[in-house]
């Protein structure tokens, strides 16, 4: 399972080594067309979450298959997947996908069958059971990212793929619902959000949102002996997705959202 190289990678050209239907046709990544479609979907998140997260799930599954091959027949563990959009998309592609979500409120009214309420620090799984371990926009919500990453690595088989993306603190979206005012201080941003909306913000810095930085995260991940870094790139950037992550300082703002593709090392 080698990583495609170069910026012209297209998700709809990824081969299926085990046969079956072709990979879901997706946007060229990176591309302005793809980034624009995702941005438009994000803007409609509150009004049409189904459309927003279904598109994001298709895009993320395309990325997994671009780096690791078709998921058909493989075991995918979705950690912190909320309402299950990612799990359902992997299942549509033939994967044996399982959702583990710590917050029962995030599961919504119709979670995927077999969803498990479980903490990402201690997954109720044996070592090495997953071909792909998937975590989308969770790392910034855990107090101990290194322990969380260790657990993702533990449940991934040697040679398996680990997909981790997160919104870094200095991204324009780092403050989540109270962004971009987080640049002026978290408490000030939260107070502004309450004045503007009349309701308290969902996230509180230091409780369920943490200031995770790209440079520090890359150094920590590269120092680990249980994973190797296949790719470190912007998840949504429309061009030079890996190059922007290599620019210290600039990357903390311009990356938007860091995507790490990791390979599990043999024990």
UniProtKB/TrEMBL annotation:
PANTHER family reported for this sequence: 2-METHOXY-6-POLYPRENYL-1,4-BENZOQUINOL METHYLASE, MITOCHONDRIAL, METHYLTRANSFERASE
Keyword Nuclease assigned: no
Keywords in alphabetical order: Methyltransferase, Transferase
Residue ranges occupied by any Methyltransferase type domain in the UniProt entry: 77-164
Originating organism: Streptomyces longisporus
Annotated protein name in UniProt: Class I SAM-dependent methyltransferase
Stretch list, region Disordered: 1-26
An example Gene Ontology biological process: methylation
């Amino acid at each position: 399972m080698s990583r495609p190289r170069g910026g012209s990678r297209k998700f709809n050209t990824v081969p299926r080594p085990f046969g079956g239907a072709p990979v879901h046709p997706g946007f060229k990544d990176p591309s302005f067309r793809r980034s624009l479609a995702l941005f438009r979907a994000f803007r409609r998140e509150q009004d049409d979450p189904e459309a927003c997260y279904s598109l994001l799930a298709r895009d993320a599954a395309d990325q997994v298959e671009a780096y690791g091959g078709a998921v058909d027949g493989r075991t995918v563990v979705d950690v912190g997947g909320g309402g299950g959009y990612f799990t359902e998309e992997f299942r549509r592609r033939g994967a044996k996908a399982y959702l583990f979500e710590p917050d029962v409120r995030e599961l919504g009214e119709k979670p995927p069958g077999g969803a498990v309420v479980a903490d990402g620090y201690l997954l109720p799984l044996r070592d090495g059971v997953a071909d792909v371990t998937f975590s989308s926009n969770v790392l910034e919500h855990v107090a101990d990212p290194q322990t969380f990453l260790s657990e993702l690595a533990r449940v991934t088989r040697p040679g398996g793929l680990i997909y981790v993306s997160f919104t870094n603190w200095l991204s324009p979206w780092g403050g989540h619902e109270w962004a971009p005012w987080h640049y002026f201080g978290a408490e000030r941003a939260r107070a502004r959000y309450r004045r503007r909306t009349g309701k308290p913000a969902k996230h509180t810095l230091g409780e369920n949102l943490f200031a995770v930085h790209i440079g520090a995260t890359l150094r920590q991940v590269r120092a680990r002996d249980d994973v190797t870094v296949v790719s470190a790139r912007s998840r949504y950037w429309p061009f030079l997705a890996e190059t922007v992550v290599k620019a210290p300082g600039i990357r903390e703002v311009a990356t938007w959202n860091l995507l790490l593709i990791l390979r599990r090392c043999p024990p």
